[in-house]
Amino acid sequence: MFNNKTVLTGVKPTGTPHLGNLVGAIKPVIDMSNEAEKAYIFIADLHALNAVRDSSLVEKWTYEVAATYMALGLDTDKAVLFRQSDVPEIYKLTVFLMNVTSKGLMNRSHAYKAVTAENEANDKHPDDGINMGLYTYPILMAADILLYNTDLVPVGQDQKQHVEMARDIAGSLNNIYGEELLVVPEPVIQKVAAAIPGLDGRKMSKSYDNYVPIFAQQKALKKLIMKIVTDSKRPEDSKDPDESTIYLLYQHFASDTEAQSMRKQFTDGGLGYGDAKKMLFELIDKTMAEPREKYYELLANPQQIEDVLMAGAEKARVVAKETVDRVSKAMLGRSV
Q1: Pick from 98, 86, 73, 94: which is nearest to 292 by CA?
Q2: What letter would DSSP give residue 177?
Q3: Per-residue pLDDT tens over the stretch 218-254
Q4: CB atoms near residue 35 (< 10 Å)
Q5: CATH 3.40.50.620: which residues of the chain?
């Protein structure tokens, strides 16, 4: 599917990556980057500015995201890992795209509509607290995608609209100027992302504070897993593995044989939740031991991360400059 294709994904640095991110996004992206002709993975620090007002946190979380991908085996010689703000062409293309994007399209943005709906529900002005960064968020995201001649964008179902908007914007510009200046991308929906449960059974999320950091140290990891909410069934009772957060997490780290064994023990009865949690802890701890060590080594040497990000930005700019050159010649009659 990804052969001869350019794949792109962005990661917003708004918190420490967790197991839901690992299973639902990070691992699939690393796998895709190994198959794709070209792969771009950017850390969307400009997108984070709406949510994070502390620059030290933006920097901290940027390094954590980069270290996560590197520790988990991303081949940075093949895939381009970079920081969004290190590619100045993103600012140029965003301005160009603003001039071919309708206000009506921005009004339909899920993120914008969600905030206005919440404001109205609380008897506030619909636009209370909304800045232009949030309102024009889809244009910046479209620029992220279109800048690199992206064919495929792996996203969760909740992000599909952004790719559809990028398609609309690219189509608008191509139509106005009568040539295929921008590649029209396709979304690749990562269905597994919505199925990763957190400690309380809801989707694992920083918003719910029910997450397990990917590289939680052994003691903290065990403590978090032991907090997983379960029902009152006894060890000898039959349990539905598909309703168990323990099993739903376990299956993503276990071999087929291990997963089937736990599944059978749940359905047949005889496996208590305490023992199941212990099995889950031991498996995750073992699986993550080596990358966890690498992760903390990288964070202790931020210059190593910085070198990779800057090298990635330099590679990304080669394509970004070509795209902006094409668009600026069509729109302004000259390169900028």
Answers
A1: 73
A2: H
A3: 999 999 999 999 999 999 999 999 999 999 999 999 9
A4: 12
A5: 6-196+302-332
Cβ atoms 320, 147 nearer than 8 A: yes
Amino acid type, 180: E
Q: Which 8-state DSSP code applies to residue 133? A: H
Question: What are φ and ψ of residue 73, in 5° steps?
Answer: 105, 15
**CATH 1.10.240.10 in the chain, residue ranges:** 218-296
Task: Output the CA angle 257-190-226, nearest 5 degrees.
Answer: 55
What class is the 6-196+302-332 domain?
alpha beta
Give the CATH H-level superfamily of domain 218-296: Tyrosyl-Transfer RNA Synthetase (1.10.240.10)
> Can you say whether the dihedral through the CA atoms of 332, 40, 166, 187 is positive or negative?
positive
Question: The tokens 């997108």 sit on which residue?
Answer: 47
Cβ(74)–Cβ(30) under 8 Å?
yes
pTM for this predicted structure? 0.93
Where does residue 77 rank: exposed (0-12), middle (13-18), buried (19+ CB within 10 A)?
exposed
